[in-house]
Amino acid sequence: MNTTLLFRDDAYLQSTEAVVTAITDDGHLILDQSVFYPTGGGQPGDRGQLQLANGESIEITNTQWLDASMQQIAHIPAEGSKLPQHGDKVQLLLDWETRFKRMRIHTALHLLSVILPYPVTGGSIGDGEGRLDFDIPEAVLDKEALTLKLQAMVDSGAAVSTQWITDAQLDAEPELVKTLSVQPPRGSGKIRLVKIEGLDLQPCGGTHVANSAEIAQVRIKKIEKKGKQNRRVRIALDS
Q1: pTM > 0.90: yes or no
Q2: What are the chain's domains?
Q3: 130-169: b (≥16 Cβ within 10 Å) or e
C-alpha cells in the first residue's frame, strides 16, 4: 500500500492518525498516510513522535523514501524503540518548530533563485539556514545588496501555492527547471509546481509557507567561491 502524502496538500498539518501497513527488516515503519516529509530535493526528512494506542510514544528520528519508486515513506524510530505491530493504529506528531523553519528557508531559496537568475548546481535546506550553488560567470556579488532584494521579495507578501502539470507540459517549458543537479521526479505522469505569485514558478516536491511574509527576516549569510564559475550563496533566518 502506498503512503498518502498529506504534506503535499497541506504543509501545515502537524498530526494525523495512521495505520502501520508494514515494518521493514531494519525496523522502519511504513504507514498508510503521513504528515512527515521524507528526505529529498535538498530538504531533510521530518522527525517527531509516534504515539501508540497504549499511550507509549516512539521518537521518529528521520523519514525517507522506502525505495526509488517514491511511493512509500519509511519512518525511522530511535534505536531500541519498542515497535508497534502490523495493522496497529498510531498517531503521528510532527516536530513543527523544525519543519516550519525548513519551510521558511525552502521558500526563501526559491526567491534567491529569482534575484540570482543563474543555473542552480546544488543546494540544501537546514534548520533556519540553507544554501544554493550557482553556475555564475566571474562576477562580484554584493551580499548587502542581495539581502535587500531578497528581503523586499519576502516583505511583498506574495501568496505561495502549488499546481500540477503533465510531463509533456514540462517538456514544452524546460526553462521552468532551474536545478541542474536535481531533476523533477517523473513516472507518475504529472509534475508538481510551486508558484510564488508574481515572482517564481518551478517544479518542487518540498514543503513551503503559504505567504512569503511568513519567512520574516532573512539575510545573505555568506558567498563562497567554489570553482571557476561556482558560487555558493548561504542564507539564514534572523527571527
Answers
A1: yes
A2: 4-94 (2.40.30.130), 98-237 (3.30.980.10)
A3: bbbbbebeeeeeeeeebbebbbebbeeebebeeeebeeee
